[in-house]
Design goal:
The chain has about 70 residues and is α+β, with helices and mostly antiparallel strands. The protein has one domain. The protein contains one helix and four strands. It has a four-stranded antiparallel β-sheet with strand order 1-2-3-4, covered by helices on one side. Strand 1 and strand 2 form a beta hairpin.
Amino acid sequence: MAVNREKDDLCHIYRGEIRVAKVYNTSKGFEVDLYENDVLLKSLIVHEHSENYAEDCAENWVQGLIE
């Protein structure tokens, strides 16, 4: 399910060949949207974690370490 966020919330974008991850800083904490072939597959809600954790999730998705 896509979450409607403000553009200003976008912190980072990670890109691979077919995968993209977008890291958002929301009022509740960090969230990571995981895309494959331009289709949003999942949103990771990692509010209780740091920005580094959210970035690691994004990088792991793009590198294929997360299925």
